Amino acid sequence: MSASGCRGQVAHARERGVSLRRACKLKSVSRSSLDYQSKLAEKDGPVIAEMRRLAGQYPRFGYRRIQVIPRRARFSLGVDRTFRLWRQAGVQVPRGRPRKRVAGCRPRPLPPVSRHDVWTYHCLFDSCANGQSRKCLTIIDEFTRECLAVDVGGSIRSRRVIEVLSQLVSVHGAPRHQRSDNGPLPSS
Q1: Is the separation of the CB atoms in 53 and 73 below 8 Å?
Q2: In terms of C-beta density within 10 A (0-12 exposed, 13-18 middle, 19 or more buried), how is residue 172 classed?
Q3: β-strands 133-141, 177-180 pairing
């Protein structure tokens, strides 16, 4: 327990009618220490006032960055003293806003219920033995897992994708949904 806390307990016991000697003996406090007046409050008062001013001026600074500024001016502060005075002043760095996170429960795509319900088209990349790269456009019916078309080329632009899809629509009819996915196929 701190010295000031012990002095407070002795004062409380004295209010209850216990003698000074008995109260000091119960709390293991010497009687001479009861009259002690700390000079720390006088010494720390201007530093705390300066800290509060700087914390208002620089709200994102913590006690470590604030420590440097009074040291430059006229106060010599160590890290421990700075932290003690920072806590005593009741100054805090405002809490940062939490980062926006991706929704934990994204809506899952509905599974296909019939043939030509959902078509998925993927772009796959590969290279030949001579190092030339190739791009493959595959269009798959998700319900039957039937590959409706495979188009291979050095580069497949959006016009080519639209052209292949329009040819498939003219042969099979339009699907209810289309998905573009460059990842693996969803498991069934």
Answers
A1: no
A2: middle
A3: unpaired
Q: What is the pLDDT of residue 167?
A: 93
Specify whether the CB–CB gap between 24 and 34 falls below 8 A.
yes
For residue 31, the 8-state DSSP code is G
Convert 45-110 into a string of H (helix), E (strand) and C (coil): HHHHHHHHHHHHHCCCCCHHHHHHHHHHHCCCCCHHHHHHHHHHHCCCCCCCCCCCCCCCCCCCCC
CA–CA distance, 77 with 47 (Å, rounded to integer): 9
For the chain, which residues make up each domain, given as ranges? 1-36, 39-93, 118-180
**Cα gap 88→167, rounded to integer Å:** 76
Per-residue pLDDT of 23-38, as tens digits, reads 888 878 887 877 777 7
Q: How many residues does the chain have?
A: 188
CA distance 47 to 70: 8
Question: Whole-model pTM above 0.90?
Answer: no
CA distance 149 to 119: 11
**Distance of alpha carbon 123 from alpha carbon 114, whole angstroms:** 24
Neighbours of 143 (CB within 10 A): 17
